[in-house]
Amino acid sequence: MRAYHLSGVADSPLELFELATPDPGPGEVSVRVQATSLNYRDLMISRRGRQGIVPLSDGAGEVLAVGPGVSRVQVGDLVAGAFFSHWPSGRISAAVHDSALGGAVDGMLAEVVVLPEHGVIAAPRGWTAAQTATLPCAALTAWNALVEGAPVRAGQTVLLLGTGGVSVFGLQFAKMMGARTIITSSSDEKLARMRALGADAVINYATHENWAEVVLESTGGVGADLVLEVGGAGTLAQSMACTRHGGQIALIGILAGASGQVNPGQLVGRSVDLRGIYVGSLEMFAEMNAAIDLHGLEPLIDEVFPFEQAAAAYRHLASQTHVGKVVVSV
Q1: Does residue 258 carry a pLDDT above 60?
Q2: Which of 1, 39, 147, 208 is the one with CA 20 to 30 A from 170?
Q3: How far apart (Å, rounded) are the C-alpha atoms in residues 148 and 252?
Q4: pLDDT averaged over the chain?
Q5: Rounded distance, CA 211 to CA 159, Å?
Q6: 111-167: per-residue pLDDT in tens?
Q7: Average pLDDT value for residue range 302-318
Q8: String of b and e for 220-243 (b: at least 16 CB within 10 Å)?
Q9: Can you tell me the distance from the alpha carbon of 199 to that of 179, in angstroms, rounded to the nearest whole number?
Q10: Residues 252, 229: Cα–Cα separation, whole Å
């Protein structure tokens, strides 16, 4: 079988290898990977010079074989790999981090992978492998942010930063829950697509540098009930300024930078809850898929690249011209 390894070279991060097809052991399943998807995390890992590991946390495919003791899945099932193979439920722990696909352990950018039975989950009904491959990181992160803290209620306002995978799924889930949504981008074209997807208000932060004021104006001076904060230090101050008193900020990413000064007085003065989000558990994944089945949600896929052009998929994600998820078919 073929698999990609990280090369350790930032401008040419992938190397294609021929490897023996792995067989599942006790409690394991082998998956014929049919599609994978990329997240900003994958760019970060490749840029840090990581070598040797099979990249990408997100992938889906057909169960090829099962090892002794496996009973929950069968050959032929369409499944996704879980971002964390060893986080069944409850709160995250340090041990959970050691099972992160494409980082701590080999990931999904291969023709066949072996995963523990408890590290795979059935695809939503009627979904393709390409659709299912969008779920493990971005979708579950957004679901965790919206549901696992103080759950979003109908009529509340959710602010989403940018139009990447997490923010787009966040928009879709928030609308599914009856919330009002505000989303930002530096592109009017992207914002028009978000309007078509159901966004109630849009803000171009290139033309409205102080976009927190626009959020406050849009909410009658109250602020957003929940902010999905994917920018990090570069945007957190404004997110804090436009979150309502007693509201929540789900801190997810560092797209706008990892360093900078933040005044915690804004959190204290407004009694805002700041919660760090790192994907989610298998239990959350199952609940999310049940909601997807019930509401008929479909992911927004920006572009699908063939396996041989995986490096082009990385470049496309790095260009930040995408809206939604970038997928690699296998």
Answers
A1: no
A2: 208
A3: 14
A4: 94
A5: 11
A6: 999 999 999 999 999 999 999 999 999 999 999 999 998 899 999 999 999 999 999
A7: 96
A8: eeebbbbbbbbbbeebbebbbbbb
A9: 10
A10: 6
Residue 158 one-letter amino acid: V
Q: What angle do CA 83, 87, 93 make, to 5 degrees?
A: 110
Instruction: Write out pLDDT tens, residues 38-89.
Output: 999 999 999 887 888 999 999 999 999 999 999 999 999 999 999 999 999 9
- Smallest Cα–Cα separation from 326: which of 308, 309, 299, 305? 305
Domains, the chain, in order of start with CATH, read: 2-137+281-329 (3.90.180.10), 149-276 (3.40.50.720)
Let me know the angle formed at the C-alpha of 310 by 308 and 313, rounded to the nearest 5 degrees.
135
Q: Tell the residue number behind the tokens 């409850």, with chain if given.
A: 90
- State the alpha helices, DSSP H only, in the chain: 40-47, 94-97, 129-132, 140-147, 165-176, 188-197, 211-218, 233-241, 265-270, 282-295, 310-319
| CB contact at 8 A, 233 and 255 | no
pLDDT for the residue 288: 98
Outline where 165-323 has alpha helix (H).
165-176, 188-197, 211-218, 233-241, 265-270, 282-295, 310-319
